[in-house]
Amino acid sequence: MSLAQLTLHDAAEKLRKAEFTAVELAEAVYERIAETEPRVGAYLTLAHDKALEDAARADEMLKQNHGGPLLGIPLAIKDNFLTKGLRTTCASKILGDFIPPFDATVIGKIRSAGAVIIGKTNLDEFAMGSSAENSAFFPTHNPWNLERIPGGSSGGSAAAVAADECTAALGTDTGGSIRQPAACCGVVGLKPTYGRVSRYGIVAFASSMDQVGPITKDVRDSALLLEVIAGHDPADSTSVNSTVPAYSEMLAGDIKHVRIGVPKEYFASGVAVEVGDAVRKAIGELEKQGAVIEDISLPYTEYAVAVYYIVATAEASSNLARYDGMRYGYRANARDLLNTYTLSRAEGFGAEVKRRIMLGTYVLSAGYYDAYYLKAQKVRRLIKQDFEAAFKRCDVIATPTAPTTAFRLGEKIQDPLQMYLSDVCTISINLAGLPALSFPCGFDTDGMPIGMQLIGKHFDEATILRVAHCYEQSTPWHRRKPKLQD
Amino acid sequence: MKLSTEQLRQVALLARLRLTPEEEVVLATELDAILGYMDKLNELNSDHVEPFKHAIMGLNPLRDDQVTNHSDTESLLANAPDRDGTFFKVPKIIE
Fold this sequence. Notes:
The structure holds 2 protein chains of 2 kinds. Chain A is an alpha/beta fold. Helix content of chain A is about 40%, strand content about 15%. Chain A has a domain at about 5-255 and about 435-480: Alpha-Beta Complex (Amidase signature (AS) enzymes). Chain A has helices spanning about 10-15, 20-40, 50-65, 105-110, 155-160, 180-185, 220-230, 275-290, 305-320, 335-350, 350-365, 370-390, 415-420, 425-430, 460-475, and strands spanning about 45, 75-80, 115-120, 170-175, 190, 210-215, 260-265, 290-295, 395-400, 435-445, 450-455. Chain A is globular, with a radius of gyration of 21 Å. The model of chain A has no long low-confidence stretch (mean pLDDT about 95). Chain B has a domain at about 5-40: Histone, subunit A (Orthogonal Bundle), CATH 1.10.20. Chain B is about 35% helix and about 5% strand. Chain B starts with a helix and ends in a 7-residue tail after the last strand. The mean pLDDT of chain B is about 90. The chains are: A alpha/beta, B mainly alpha. Chains A and B meet through helix 9, helix 10, helix 11, helix 12 and helix 13 of A and helix 1 and helix 2 of B.
């Protein structure tokens, strides 16, 4: 078995026991990348030399028996995290040669914990998409079937974890961008509570929903990474000042009497039969282990996609106003200031980003603000209240992560509305600011992974991690590996 | 159509985006479909619903007003599309 296949917790333990070195681990990951990357296309930028230097430094610290919890661990980072001195493109031509002058807070945290950054992973441009096809550079392929999408927008990170091109990865999730690709690629993806992890230094998309989280090979790794990245940051006024629990120490224990809510709206038509069946079977397994199943309803679910694509595009149109070609980023040659703005943005942004900027500008414009933006913010409150009512009757909510397994490359790219509707199971959670975890719960007849989503109460990541960990202990899905054949 | 060509061009100007005639045609159709879908929200009476403000917090957190300037100006300027010494060079702004 290649060292690249190890989980984070296994690799960390074996590094401490000196079974191999951090340099050997990083080299094994780069060997794997050399072998599989031409078919997968998960990375936009590799940091080979710097990574091996960092690994050598980690080895020195391991010898002295000190250093953080990620000492020597090879991580892949979605290319919308600012990494000092390492190109950060957001998969956009407008940031094609941008070298960040500072690290995102989360990057500083993982570096302090000893992590080795392997490279920056592909995404839908500015994290806008559900298939990673909106990258300005190239699409990423699903390691389980190279003709399928890896999901998006954190498609590169999820594919890199699934293909063992890293030990674990970081992604961002605004409407499902960690969980849906994790489901598509058969790995574990966690979107923490809004405010749990600092957003400082993450390229902003929709600031009221963006959140950073881990994509990992199992649930324990998810807990370990969350422990490192969570916490208050004075540079992000929306990060919450409360103690970070030791999530990885809270995984043990049974799930007797945990009340699991099953909302009927998430099993309605549109959810593939095999997906619904696999998730229901997983819920049955949790019941066998002592959980109590409650049928619940989240009646405003059907409005979530409409609300999300008003709120998210409105925020995106404001956030992306900064790309004006003046202080950084792409600048077109034009005859005057106005034309420099309009042409730089026309040439720098891709089709989906332009579509969302146009939508967002329209729903915020005079005469349409009340009809769209204000209306959406009202319905957003109703969606949040749905969850508040549901959580009086249950501790966690179980649903499919996505209505189908990974679809084919090119299948939805010409139809933006169909693409938006593929987020139907994940976006309500961002609208309400809740934490949610996706983990593998089976495979369909085409051999594609199926993801189950567990939604928790605000700041109760510990319970969803514990329930998922309990499930993982009695099921084989997370240990399966893609064959990665042409 | 929800958006006339004239409205579409006005929105593009507000967004500082130059659209090609082909993009105008495609966007008009796509935005029409998406905005049509969003009309679904009009099924709901939300007259007495307070608009959503924040997922977690009720208050706007304040912090001390301290100067924390970035010390490495060269790394900031290095990303400039055009510069003159320690200045960003931009197109003429005042006619």
